[in-house]
Amino acid sequence: MGEREEVKILGFWASPFVHRVQWALNLKGTHFDYAEEDLWGEKSALLLSTNPVHKQVPVLIHNAKPVVDSLLILEYIDDTWTHRHQILPTDPYDRAMARFWAKFGDEKLLGPAFRAMCSSSEKKVMGANSVAESLEFLEGVLKGKKFFGVENIGYLDIALGWLAYMLEVWEEVGSMKIMDANKFPCLANWMKSFVDHPLIKDSLPPRDKMVVYFEERCKILASLFN
Amino acid sequence: MGEREEVKILGFWASPFVHRVQWALNLKGTHFDYAEEDLWGEKSALLLSTNPVHKQVPVLIHNAKPVVDSLLILEYIDDTWTHRHQILPTDPYDRAMARFWAKFGDEKLLGPAFRAMCSSSEKKVMGANSVAESLEFLEGVLKGKKFFGVENIGYLDIALGWLAYMLEVWEEVGSMKIMDANKFPCLANWMKSFVDHPLIKDSLPPRDKMVVYFEERCKILASLFN
């Protein structure tokens, strides 16, 4: 790719979906500009024009063309910057499996864990239990491997990366316990390896700031989820 | 690929998700076996073992390896049988757009249209209106093209194919009107071209049988959606 290409992320500091895109570009060594969106205030005209359907972050703008949806942006990044650090596996079956578990992670872990954090009593317990059950599947997928991408961080590591630094915050904010290192030893090791990865560790949002932010979100959303 | 490869679909005759996989294999000229699942009776041991997470069809079994989730199966088919009829576009940006609108179709059209069919009064009207609004986006995407894949049927045509033969059945069963050829002329032409395509027209389920089946489903699901 030429040196003068424009690569810009419209993001929000606490969004696990936005972090995926930042990590993927870091792995590719692709320089990008970043614009923080005021998601709960006034969204920028650029966000509204580049993502008119969902009006959400992340948006990746590459030479004036917008791509949205974090998992689809990962595919686009891998299809576009092919020179370095392949993100998806090469084998068609491995690719299918990585995509399957990434979608599973969003549907059975990320969404339910967020809702459990903001729920109370019975709903919280049921939600937390269902997330723990889903973690069992991932423990099986990871067995014998350091990363889901085997030797290094790949598509599925990036998709599930939020588990490694955000789940613990959600557990604290939601006064719930989901992750158990004795029950999920492979996942526990993976979480450590992931947050210690040189391209990840300096990109994570401050823990204290996340706690304050998600406590605030939960107050606002509690009525919706209970 | 070798001649002795095993390609099998676990399916259900009225599932638009299953049809996608059948069409894609037909486009590739890949011979496959088909096993009908009794989704509302007893699911086969093969289904439960090949899709333990969701226990749903379609499952594509290729040389004993199962792939699930219809849109991911399309990617797998395109990654595997590369010799003929590329399903996804080549250009990274076109690929991202095709994936985006396919997901949009499932989230903003297929799910909502099905629920509107089974809902009553206010909910039906609101649901049908939201589907019509979403069709406006697709009309814009299609403008000036015969197929979403431009010259021939591609990934997005396959993903949205259900619109061309099933939406009208759902409109009849649900006593609602969503599609309007005057408002969406490009989509109306596309629907005709799609169901007339030589590889599609002989694979569609009988209309009368669909009406009876979806009427029955609606009776069962009405209490859930109202």
TrEMBL record, chains A, B:
Domain GST N-terminal: 5-85
Transcription is among the record's keywords: no
GO biological process: glutathione metabolic process
CDD domains per record: GST_C_Tau, GST_N_Tau
InterPro entries: Glutathione-S-Trfase_C-like, Glutathione-S-Trfase_C_sf, Glutathione_S-Trfase, Glutathione_S-Trfase_N, GST_C, GST_C_Tau, Omega/Tau-like, Thioredoxin-like_sf
Signal peptide from the UniProt entry: none
UniProt catalytic activity: RX + glutathione = an S-substituted glutathione + a halide anion + H(+)
Source organism superkingdom: Eukaryota
Enzyme Commission number(s) from the entry: 2.5.1.18
Keywords: Transferase
Gene Ontology CC terms, in alphabetical order: cytoplasm
Domain GST C-terminal: 91-214
Family note: Belongs to the GST superfamily.
Classification via PANTHER family: GLUTATHIONE S-TRANSFERASE, GST, SUPERFAMILY, GST DOMAIN CONTAINING, GLUTATHIONE TRANSFERASE
Annotated protein name in UniProt: glutathione transferase
Species assigned in the record: Stephania japonica
Organism lineage: Eukaryota, Viridiplantae, Streptophyta, Embryophyta, Tracheophyta
